[in-house]
Amino acid sequence: MLSLESLCKRYDQTPVFADVTLALARGEFVALLGESGVGKSTLLNCIAGLDRADSGRIVVAGTDLAGLDDDAGARLRREHLGFVFQAFHVLPHLTVAENVSLPLRLLGRPHAAPVQAMLDAVGLGALAARLPAQLSGGQLQRVAIARALVHAPGLILADEPTGNLDPATAERVLEVLRTQVREAGSACLLVTHSAAAAAHADRVLRLTPAGIEPALRAAVQP
Ligand SMILES: Nc1ncnc2c1ncn2[C@@H]1O[C@H](COP(=O)(O)OP(=O)(O)O)[C@@H](O)[C@H]1O
Ligand SMILES: [Mg+2]
């Protein structure tokens, strides 16, 4: 579902990461650790086509991103990608349900029933008509997660998606992610600092300035 080959990224002359090579199969859930500032969010942005790597290859759902113009990139994202941004990026003038329905509307698919089911799954079923300003940080984070998953994308990129959640809610959200990976066969790359989140993963990796390496689950601080 995702293949990265020798991906390198610099900002001006400063290297962010180098030689990132990774393959993610359908139905695989991978946790990505790494110190703050090592480039985890930048890596997810590159995979999503929102930022450009300086060298290397990114293949999403069998398509090399290098060969795509802007429209084709947008179509690929719409169809195959669910992105949970660290900063949520929930649209303030749309209700919770409208925010979550966006991926399905853009694909021209029915949205009422799947949106309600996804909101129920993340524990926001009663808040569908609220505006984002009327939500807590943890509730906003769950809107972002519901929006990323509602169209059952083949590839889920999640940037610290449980960072604002209490342990019980985090567990519930991770279970929703896990279910999506299992039942829809999605692949999930989850950036996290949480041991509870890493415990759900099939593999745990660490991003370093030199590349990606296997990490011990025990290395995650509880
Ligand atoms: N637009 C940008 N211009 C210059 N440097 C940036 C930009 N975005 C991020 N960086 C730098 O790249 C590095 C990686 O950032 P980031 O991907 O946000 O790290 P992480 O998510 O692992 O904490 C940091 O040193 C950050 O300061
Ligand atoms: Mg980050």
Describe this structure in words.
With 222 residues, the protein is of the alpha/beta class. The chain has one domain (2-216): P-loop containing nucleotide triphosphate hydrolases (Rossmann fold). The chain contains 7 helices and 10 strands. It has helices spanning 40-47, 70-80, 96-106, 112-121, 137-149, 167-184, 195-198, and strands at 2-11, 14-24, 29-33, 55-60, 63-64, 81-84, 155-159, 187-191, 203-208, 211-214. The strands form 2 sheets. It has a 6-stranded mixed beta sheet with strand order 6-7-8-3-9-10. It has a 4-stranded antiparallel beta sheet with strand order 2-1-4-5, with helices on one face. Strand 4 (55-60) and strand 5 (63-64) form a beta hairpin. The longest helix has 18 residues, at 167-184. The two termini are 30 Å apart. The model has no long low-confidence stretch (mean pLDDT 94). Bound molecules: adenosine-5'-diphosphate (ADP) and magnesium ion. Magnesium ion (MG) is lined by residues 40-41, 86, 159. Magnesium ion (MG) binds next to helix 1.
Give the topology, please:
Elements: E1 2-11, E2 14-24, E3 29-33, H1 40-47, E4 55-60, E5 63-64, H2 70-80, E6 81-84, H3 96-106, H4 112-121, H5 137-149, E7 155-159, H6 167-184, E8 187-191, H7 195-198, E9 203-208, E10 211-214
Parallel strand pairs: 3-8, 3-9, 6-7, 7-8
Antiparallel strand pairs: 1-2, 1-4, 4-5, 9-10
The structure holds adenosine-5'-diphosphate (ADP) and magnesium ion.
